[in-house]
Amino acid sequence: MPTDQTEPDRFRADVRAFLGDRLPADLAAHVAKGGYPRSECIRDWIATLAERGWSAPQWPREWGGAELPPRLHAILDEECALANAPAVESLGISTVGPALLEFGSPEQKSRFLPSIVTAREHWCQGFSEPGAGSDLAALNTRAVREGDVFKVTGSKIWTSSAHEADWMLCLARSDPDAPRHQGISALLIDMRAAGVRVRPIRWMNGVHGFNEVFLDGVEVPVENLLGTENGGWAVAMQALGPERIFVSRVAENKRLLRQLHETMATPDADGHRLADDPAFADRAAALEVRLLALEERFVQFLDDLAAGRPVGPEVSMLKLTGSRLIQAFEALIVEAHGPAVLPFDAARTAAEGLGLEVGAPSAAMAALKMLHHRGYTIAAGSSEVQLEVLSRRVLGL
Ligand SMILES: Cc1cc2nc3c(=O)[nH]c(=O)nc-3n(C[C@H](O)[C@H](O)[C@H](O)COP(=O)(O)OP(=O)(O)OC[C@H]3O[C@@H](n4cnc5c(N)ncnc54)[C@H](O)[C@@H]3O)c2cc1C
Fold it and tell me: How many whole angstroms separate alpha carbon 95 and alpha carbon 127?
């Protein structure tokens, strides 16, 4: 067989063996139930993946990555999801690292990249503000240069994980007189610096996932400027770039498909299985077909990426389709569990990351996850904005 056919198979077997050996069984059981693993467990897991360069699979080896071709990265994600490994939800790896790799000084790279890739330090992304989300260039947080520091004042919102973060990649307006995109600087802010205050915002399922961050005259040394002064827009675009393909969440959708099938195969109190209900099975099959179509398109984008072909605005379809599919799977899983999804204990969920366990093992978290993932309509570019891009820039409407 030609090498290009055996390589993915060999890699998949290698990943499976690694997962069998190193993924803690209790952690996988927690994820299989839909639980939110504790941050320490996720950090430990990221550090374990980092031993193989798999916490940041496409990063250069020099900086702790594995330089995996995009298709192998997708296989890694899929095997991890199907083994119920916790998702590597690290803004340091997904957004800050790519910006540091491109724009960081040698000192910044050496200082930050090793601790990002091993999850020894945690990052948040301070881009959105109360008046600047889809229209990010409207941001108003000010950075005033005073000698060798910037003084930063303003507020950020929807900042995921800011309450656990050591550092923030922050966009601030450093030249209010320049055209909007040309007066922004990207700053690396120590979350323990004087003047940083974090206030929680709970997701609609009660879990503390994101925050408001208030910056009151925070002093940021000039050496923590990433890229050039007033060159922050390019840094932001680089940070958000890698999100564009993997945000299709194909691996996560595959895990949900399996969860749906498991739920359908479990008999209810009367011994009925939804798998034997042709109407319900049709609806499950329709979602599976959508997933196959998404994966097909995802793989085409991966090949474009690998071949160095430019990824155009049509990539917006991945985020749009993937997020909608997750929501459709979760709605059907909730329907399949029926009333077992209703009882939950918000206090215990907040404290332990698990709801009350009644019904099938994953039932307790099904409704909470469905509520959580409503946010996918908005995060990483809202569905309306993706539709706008597709209609104007791809279809020319
Ligand atoms: C789960 C989650 C996690 C997040 N994490 C972070 C984070 O860590 N860091 C961070 O900086 N931000 C984060 N965000 C914020 C996110 O980036 C913004 O919410 C998003 O960019 C939308 O901005 P907005 O909330 O200001 O809404 P707006 O931009 O005000 O949009 C309001 C409505 O108008 C629609 N709309 C806006 N512009 C257009 C247009 N041109 N055409 C058609 N419709 C339009 C939108 O679709 C939406 O329905 C997160 C959001 C969520 C949901």
Answer: 11
